[in-house]
Amino acid sequence: MPEIVIIAAVAKNRVIGKDNQLIWSIPEDMAHFKALTAGHPVIMGRKTWESLPPRFRPLPGRRNVVISRQADYAAPGAEVADSLENALKLASTAAETPHASGAETLFIIGGEQIYAQAMAVADRLEITEVELEPAGDAWFPEIPAVNWKKTSKIEGAGYAFVTYQRQ
C-alpha cells in the first residue's frame, strides 16, 4: 500500500474553513501544498472539490479523486469513488491519465469528514499551523501525541510547516 499523507492548513483552534472556503490566504502555504502534492494523486471530498476555483479543477499535475456518496456525481477531470477506502484503492492503481505516476504517495486534501476518516490510516501528516483563531464551521481532528511524533517544523511569518509521523 502506498504512503498515505494528510495535508492541511489548520488554525490554532483547529479550524480549517468556513462556508466551504479557506479563511486565510498564505501564498507560502499554497506553494508548499503544490510542491508536496505535485505528481501525486490527491483525494478529496465532494465539498472540497466544489470549493476549488473552477480554473483549478482538477488540480493540475495531479490525479484527482473525489469522494461522493452520490451515485451519479460528476467531477469533470477527476475520478469519483464512493468511500475513502475505494478512493485509496483507485488512487493507488495505475491510471490511463497524464499524471498517473506518484502512486507511491497519496495525499488526502480535505475536508473535515475525509480528514476524520483518514486519521486512522494515514502514515504522515503535513500540517501548516496557522497562527490564527478564526470562527469557522469545519475543524481538523485532534492529533493525539500517543499516535503521532513531530519530526520537523519550519517556522514562517504567522505559520509553521509541521510534519508528523505515525508512531
Describe it.
The structure is a single chain. This protein has 167 residues and is α/β, with parallel strands linked by helices. The protein has a single domain, classed as Dihydrofolate Reductase, subunit A. Helices cover 20% and strands 31% of the residues. The protein has four helices and ten strands, in the order ββαβαββαβαββββ. An eight-stranded mixed sheet has the order 5-4-3-6-1-7-10-9, with helices on both faces. Strand 9 and strand 10 form a beta hairpin. The longest helix has 11 residues.
What would a concise description of this structure say?
The protein is built from four helices and ten strands, in the order ββαβαββαβαββββ. The protein is of the alpha/beta class and 167 residues long.
Q: What pattern of helices and strands is seen along the backbone? A: EEHEHEEHEHEEEE
Helix share bin: 10-25%
How many beta-strand segments?
Answer: 10
Radius of gyration, taken over Cα atoms and rounded to an integer in Å: 15 Å
- Biggest sheet, spatial arrangement of strands: 5-4-3-6-1-7-10-9
- The quaternary state of the protein chains shown equals single chain
Specify the overall morphology: globular
Query: In the residues, how many domains can be counted?
Result: 1
Q: List low-confidence stretches.
A: none
